[in-house]
Write a structure and sequence with these properties.
Layout lengths: L8 H18 L14 H5 L6 H8 L10 E4 L1 E2 L2 E2 L4 H8 L4 E2 L3 E6 L6 E7 L5 E7 L4
Antiparallel strand pairs: 1-7, 2-3, 4-5, 5-6, 6-7
Length: 136
């Protein structure tokens, strides 16, 4: 089945799950005492929008925001820091919106809209990868 964004729900779901899993495995939101656990698709998708008490119960207490609306990743859906822009464009396909210094890719909503953003340095290599809520 094709989503409104033009990609299959299966591919978009796997990309979202991979992004969220890699966030937890490779780039924790704050220092943790124990190794990160593996998460199912449902668990990984549920990280965006957590309330502070829910977040504290799972990972310990951060002191800044009342919900998680953005996560930073080292790799996501076959894209990694340092990859060339051409590879990212090919990986994300026609649905990706090229804005020069960054590419936006809509992800399936999980109670709210989600976007994958890939930033590039002046040499054209991936410098940052984020999943965030674009309407917040």
């Amino acid at each position: 089945m094709i989503c409104e964004s033009g990609i299959t729900r299966g591919i978009a779901g796997r990309l979202l799950a991979l992004c969220c899993f890699l966030l937890l495995a490779a780039a924790p939101l704050w220092p943790q005492n124990s190794p990160p656990a593996a998460f199912s698709l449902d668990e990984a998708s549920a990280l965006i929008g957590l309330k502070l008490d829910e977040l504290a119960a799972r990972f310990g207490l951060p002191q800044t925001k009342d919900r998680v609306w953005q996560v930073s990743l080292k790799t996501a859906g076959g894209i990694a820091l340092g990859d060339p822009k051409a590879a990212v464009t090919l990986t994300l396909g026609e649905t990706a919106e090229d804005n020069g210094a960054y590419i936006l890719f809509p992800l399936p909503p999980v109670g709210w809209p989600l976007t994958l953003r890939v930033n590039f340095n002046p040499a054209g290599s991936v410098s940052a990868i984020f999943i965030y809520r674009p309407d917040f």
